[in-house]
């Protein structure tokens, strides 16, 4: 929802005070904030010395709250040491996410990463504040020295919309803005009055933090007792989802329903809340238990007959019950594997949150969990009241609830592609939220940093297709060449693996492309991509490229003339998917670079299918092998006399196909090399099966289970392909 934001620079000061007046004003604002009964707020203090401002803020906040966590870069930490109850570096935020603080001071002399701000706020309990110590407004560059200034402009606009804010310049003694929400915060209803339908222990029910959590616990216990296979707990961050899993785990342990229970999540930090609540609930129920810790983190809770133990997602082996926190962050591949092998699964996932989430992802998680499945939604935040102004500001500012807007009237009167002016976009919240709402679907994981990057990164460009002025398709793209900073340079390095000329080539990488979900498959993506290509040609670039994880969109890129130029042998830690890079040449040099890389990739995919690319699903592997006639190249040596003999016996039915897999391998590899890819005339399913068995070396039983076909069907596929390849070879020789 957009509120009364206003165009930037400079905000009208509320008034000039003395330096002492600023601190007094801040103290009385903090008092008023506390009097709201639990709302949290934001403090922004500008100063030529952010370190000095940070230490001042730390002293005031420590005075008011008793504790304050300071987060500051290395060079700023020493002067702050005496003023903070805890001092950490910005890199430690992941570790801090499980902690609770009354106040957090962020000293940010340069880049203000939205992820850091959002995560810091996540650790603040009701009534507390996040305070930023930053340079004077005129010099403030939260997007970094290279930024185009759009993110700064946007932030300043958004500060104008914050409902609980103290914003001042300490040196100039100016208060820019001071705001507090009217009325008192209402605590969410507690579990006391809830009447359970399941046989859940009363004491356990009363360990719930909110009525919501108690109700969900009751529903889950009922579901489990009725032999439900999976449970998904969803909601925004800080709703007590992990805590609820802890309560359910305590129920399972206390009822002697479990022995060894594997617990997984992207990092051990994410399950601290789970273990904390589990331990507290077991204590409440009088169940003897102990905890296993390493490096200050709890990694397990065990008792005489049960053991809940954390494992990293790549190591976890399913148990009779498996617990998965932050399930979406495991990625679809890993989650699917886990779900198919776990008799019963308890999972939680954030719908909108700070470290990569979104509705697309939550839907994906839901679809993967086996039936009978129960989905419960937790509405109320645990640590602060509903309607908290700091949470609202963060969610609105970093568009954490971004969703595609309602689609415009169709067909539209006018359809126009253009490059968006990002500085202007910073002043137009409605347009920006529509653009972003479309764009977030191109990616499973969206985080606050993404918005800043799209708005502000100097090498990014933003394109949109407008239907009667409403965005219906969006592209975020990044200019890349050999001079691009290493961290931001992706395609040039991938292309240069095979093609030395890639160091001379310049291109545009489509970081994300998305079409309004209600308007896909009508040519809009193709049309906008065409416009982006025109722009890239206009800039004299050599290639247009993209890198992505979902192999199912490969069809779109192929239809638009893109070649696969790289496939990552390692799955992404975050999603378990293998990144695929595609490119389309735009110049003579581009043609040389892209086709060289594409031919080499095809050969590598074929010859290292059983080693580097064995981890790809059969479907994904066959999809990247599809190639194009232009990629045809020199085949390997032909069959020996003996191989030919075996082949003819196999074709006569006297030998099993497994006895001629080496022959099938050679025929297949030579066919793919000579024709530039694995396509027709083979049926799609035959391609998956033959690629997985012959090139990736997977077992027939793994293939049958993965593709949901019978062993018989898989064997018939192999035989069919063998016959087709032998016939093709025969025709060539004849
Ligand atoms: C770098 C990245 O961002 S990769 C991620 C891409 N984005 C997403 O996955 C977000 C969700 N999807 C979308 O936004 C859109 O569907 C896009 C961008 C993938 C494609 O745009 P659309 O307008 O839907 O596609 P368009 O109509 O132009 O498709 C042209 C052809 O490409 C192929 N194609 C399009 N989408 C797909 C797909 N998801 N899978 C396979 N083939 C596809 C089809 O052959 C299609 O022709 P057809 O509809 O006649 O069969
Ligand atoms: N029943 C409970 N009793 C005590 N504390 C709880 C309970 N449930 C949750 N909490 C605490 O409230 C805070 C937020 O809860 P939790 O971490 O479960 O939320 P979440 O919805 O899983 O959010 P996130 O997505 O941030 O993990 C945590 O500090 C957690 O320990």
UniProtKB/TrEMBL annotation:
Q: Does the entry feature the keyword rRNA processing, yes or no?
A: no
The entry's acetyl-CoA-binding residues are 513-515, 559
Q: Which UniProt keywords apply?
A: Acyltransferase, ATP-binding, Cytoplasm, Nucleotide-binding, RNA-binding, Transferase, tRNA processing, tRNA-binding
List the EC numbers from the record.
Answer: 2.3.1.193
State the compartments where it is located.
Cytoplasm
One family name in Pfam for this protein: NAT10_TcmA_helicase
The positions annotated for binding ATP are: 213, 383
Q: What is its main location?
A: cytoplasm
Which reaction is this enzyme known to catalyze?
A: cytidine(34) in elongator tRNA(Met) + acetyl-CoA + ATP + H2O = N(4)-acetylcytidine(34) in elongator tRNA(Met) + ADP + phosphate + CoA + H(+); a cytidine in mRNA + acetyl-CoA + ATP + H2O = an N(4)-acetylcytidine in mRNA + ADP + phosphate + CoA + H(+); a cytidine in RNA + acetyl-CoA + ATP + H2O = an N(4)-acetylcytidine in RNA + ADP + phosphate + CoA + H(+); a cytidine in tRNA + acetyl-CoA + ATP + H2O = an N(4)-acetylcytidine in tRNA + ADP + phosphate + CoA + H(+)
Record keyword Cytoplasm present: yes
Q: Where is the N-acetyltransferase domain?
A: 421-587
Which PANTHER family does the record cross-reference, listed alphabetically? N-ACETYLTRANSFERASE 10 (PTHR10925), RNA CYTIDINE ACETYLTRANSFERASE (PTHR10925:SF5)
Function recorded in the entry: Catalyzes the formation of N(4)-acetylcytidine (ac(4)C) at the wobble position of tRNA(Met), by using acetyl-CoA as an acetyl donor and ATP (or GTP).
User: What family is it from?
Assistant: Belongs to the TmcA family.
- Protein name (Swiss-Prot/TrEMBL): tRNA(Met) cytidine acetyltransferase TmcA
- What's the source species' lineage? Archaea, Thermoproteota, Thermoprotei, Desulfurococcales, Pyrodictiaceae
């Amino acid at each position: 929802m957009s509120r009364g934001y206003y165009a930037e620079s400079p905000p009208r000061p509320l008034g000039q005070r003395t330096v002492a007046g600023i601190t007094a004003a801040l103290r009385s604002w903090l008092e008023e904030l506390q009097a709201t009964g639990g709302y949290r707020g934001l403090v922004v203090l500008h100063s030529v010395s952010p370190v000095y401002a940070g230490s001042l803020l730390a002293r005031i906040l420590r005075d008011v709250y008793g504790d304050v966590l300071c987060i500051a870069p290395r060079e700023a930490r020493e002067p702050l040491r005496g003023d903070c109850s805890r001092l950490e570096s910005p890199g430690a935020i992941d570790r801090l996410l499980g902690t609770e603080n009354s106040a957090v001071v962020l000293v940010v002399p340069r880049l203000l990463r939205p992820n850091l701000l959002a995560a810091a706020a996540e650790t603040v309990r009701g009534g507390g504040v996040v305070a930023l110590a930053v340079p004077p407004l005129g010099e403030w560059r939260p997007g970094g020295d290279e930024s185009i200034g759009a993110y700064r402009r946007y932030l300043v606009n958004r500060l104008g919309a914050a409902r609980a804010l103290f914003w001042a310049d300490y040196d100039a003694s100016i208060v820019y803005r001071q705001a507090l929400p009217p009325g008192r915060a209402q605590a969410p209803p507690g579990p006391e009055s809830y009447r359970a339908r399941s046989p859940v222990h009363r004491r356990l029910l009363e360990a719930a933090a909110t009525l919501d959590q108690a109700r969900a616990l009751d529903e889950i216990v009922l579901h489990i007792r009725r032999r439900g296979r999976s449970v998904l707990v969803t909601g925004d961050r800080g709703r007590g989802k992990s805590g609820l899993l802890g309560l359910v785990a305590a129920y399972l342990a206390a009822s002697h329903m479990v022995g060894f229970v594997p617990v997984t999540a992207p990092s051990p930090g994410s399950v601290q809340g789970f273990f904390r609540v589990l331990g507290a609930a077991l204590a409440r129920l009088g169940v003897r238990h102990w905890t296993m810790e390493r490096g200050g983190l709890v990694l397990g809770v065990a008792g005489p007959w049960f053991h809940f133990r954390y494992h990293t997602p790549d190591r976890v082996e399913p148990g009779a019950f498996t617990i998965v926190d932050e399930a979406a962050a495991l990625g679809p591949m890993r989650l699917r594997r886990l779900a198919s092998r776990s008799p019963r699964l308890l999972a939680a996932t954030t719908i909108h949150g700070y470290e990569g989430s979104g509705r697309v992802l939550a839907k994906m998680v839901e679809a993967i969990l086996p039936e009978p499945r129960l989905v419960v939604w937790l509405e109320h935040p645990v640590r602060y009241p509903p309607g908290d102004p700091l949470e609202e500001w963060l969610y609105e500012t970093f568009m954490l609830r971004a969703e595609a807007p309602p689609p415009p009237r169709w067909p539209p009167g006018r359809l126009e592609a253009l490059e968006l002016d990002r500085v202007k976009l910073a002043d137009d919240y409605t347009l920006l939220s529509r653009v972003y709402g479309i764009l977030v679907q191109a990616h499973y994981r969206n985080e606050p940093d993404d918005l800043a990057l799209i708005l502000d990164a100097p090498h990014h460009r933003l394109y949109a297709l407008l239907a009667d002025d409403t965005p219906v398709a969006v592209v975020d793209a990044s200019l890349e060449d050999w001079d691009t900073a290493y961290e931001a340079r992706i395609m040039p390095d991938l292309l240069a693996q095979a093609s030395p000329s890639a160091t001379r080539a310049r291109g545009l990488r489509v970081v994300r492309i998305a079409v309004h979900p209600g308007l896909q498959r009508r040519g809009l993506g193709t049309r906008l991509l065409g416009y982006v290509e025109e722009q890239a040609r206009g800039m004299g670039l050599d290639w247009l490229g993209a890198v992505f994880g979902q192999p199912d969109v490969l069809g779109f890129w192929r239809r638009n003339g893109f070649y696969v130029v790289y496939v990552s042998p390692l799955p992404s830690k975050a999603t378990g998917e293998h990144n695929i890079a595609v490119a389309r040449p735009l110049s003579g040099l581009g043609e040389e670079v892209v086709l060289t890389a594409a031919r080499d990739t095809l050969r590598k995919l074929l010859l290292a299918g059983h080693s580097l690319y064995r981890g790809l699903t059969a479907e994904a592997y066959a999809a990247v092998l599809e190639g194009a006639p232009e990629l045809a190249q020199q085949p390997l040596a032909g069959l020996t006399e003996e191989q030919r003999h075996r082949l003819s016996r196999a074709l006569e039915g006297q030998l099993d196909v497994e006895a001629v897999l080496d022959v099938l391998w050679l025929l297949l590899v030579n066919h793919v090399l000579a024709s530039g890819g694995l396509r027709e005339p083979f049926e799609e399913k035959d391609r998956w099966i033959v690629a997985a068995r012959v090139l990736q070396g997977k077992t027939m039983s793994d293939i049958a289970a993965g593709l949901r076909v019978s062993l018989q069907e898989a064997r018939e596929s192999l035989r069919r392909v063998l016959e087709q390849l032998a016939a093709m070879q025969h025709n060539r020789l004849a």
